[in-house]
Amino acid sequence: MSGSHGRSVRRRTFVLGATAAAGTAALAGTARAAAFGWSDDGSNYVVDTGADLVFKVSRTNGDLTSLIYRGTDHQGYGGMNSHIESGLGTSTVSIKQSGTTILVTVAHGTLRHYYAARSGENNIYLWTDKADTSVPATRYILRVKKGLFLNDEPDSYTYAPTTVEASDVFAKSDGQTRSKHYSGLRVMDYDHVGWTGGGVGLWIVRSNHEKASGGPFYRSLLRHQSADGGGLYEILYYGQNQTEAQRFGLQGPYVIAFTDGGAPSPSLFPGTLTTPWADSLGMSGYVGAGGRGRVAGVGISGRNTAYPYTVGLASPDAQYWGSARASDGWFSIGGVLPGTYTLTVFKGELAVYTGSVTVTAGGTTTLNTIAIPSSNDPGNASAIWRIGDWNGTPAGFKNAGLMTYAHPSDVRAASWTGNVVVGNDETASFPCYLWKDVNSGILVYFKLTAAQAAAAHTLRIGVTTAYANGRPQVTVNDTWTSAIPSPPTQPSTRSLTNGSYRGNNHTFTYSVPASAWRTDTGQYNVLRIDVVSGSGTTDYLSAGTAIDAIDLLA
Fold first, then answer.
1. pTM reported for the whole predicted model
2. Calculated CA dihedral for residues 20, 77, 130, 491, nearest 10 degrees
3. Which of 484, 492, 498 is nearest to 540 (CA)?
4. Average confidence (pLDDT) over 9-18
5. CB of 9 within 8 A of CB of 196?
6. Residue 102 three-state SS
7. Alpha-carbon distance 21 to 395, whole Å?
8. Cis ω on the peptide bond leading into residue 253 (within 30° of 0)?
């Protein structure tokens, strides 16, 4: 990627430089906007932030039709505006000014969408209140004009693509693949997405996702580029590989932020951003800080300190999460709407504890030390051998590091076939995904002692998701074959080819009789794993599954 085209900054660990620290400060000699206020040009409400940003909202449909920063309009590609979903259509749009704040309200059926501007800021604050399924998804698409921020990120479209799958996965001439679906980042891993170039940074700062679905580990669209421009997303509900029902209510704020090229101000990040100035604006469903509570835990015992732990709160109405402190498991989750939540402790991405907690407005619910029972963590079981780690992800398996931002056919992927020998780098040799039409029938070679071969053993295969009901059936030494297990509940959409292994973690167990083992301790036992299902199509869209861990218990 050419340096003149800028680069994308995504992680919260970005180090702010001098220009970034200046945030929205104007550069000397640049054109400056007029006084803070708004006007009506007959087709749009025109909002002047009194800084360097002027934007327009259509009076007809609530689209963002112009986004002028320092004299350059950044809005639009392919003749399309920025908007909720793919555009709402005819809507009722109104505007009001309350001191140093301007609020534009877009009403479309049961949906309400809001744009807010603050005097002297180069930010647009957005909220979306979705009451039902009349709008199928909830996403805001910021459509950016061609040529302003050219790049070729792994998690975006590329230029002049060749279609690999459906109409949304493409290959470059060098064999690398791209798709807007690919996201090397989980929701909990980023605060903002965007681009820099020419001394300008344009970002979407994500919301807290309390009315989104999928939890802290969900991956969804972040950005895309095509020949006619680019787009940035805030995804609040998206049906691709979704593990939860849709939530409804007011979600926000998420922020469109301009800077001098650096990352947006940390004061805008989720968990930091507070908007007391919005308390009196009258947005439907708005709950200020005084109407929210906090959950705090003094610690978590029974952890494996080699892994990070996350605490999640979820109800049909809202979701939240926070990291547990590595030293003792202390956690604190604030800004929580009142209600009763399922509290889940995750080792990596594997649920190892669940409980219930009630949150009240203005209060802190303090929890005593949470003790994770040893039996809740499958990694605690004594095993003759184990491939991978029980952490709810395919991390460490072959190609796992590539699959969140590439198609399995990508030129960078190692061969999906090949047998595995326990004791010979077995995890890195075992493919992270198995498909009925690609690499079903993989063989695992291992030896047993005489005592081990004389006993029955339990074989476990943990998976993180499955496509088209793909599930493992096992055969030992061509003498014993398991029954075909029932498929667990998993998302029905594409997953393994869309950059996501995140589904519903499930463990298959197989009781292997002693008669299946080879009694000659010098011989290898051979485990064959086949993917079975009557669904799916061919190749990488055949039935498949993602692997968490495989072990033979002692």
1. 0.92
2. -90
3. 498
4. 30
5. yes
6. strand
7. 36
8. yes
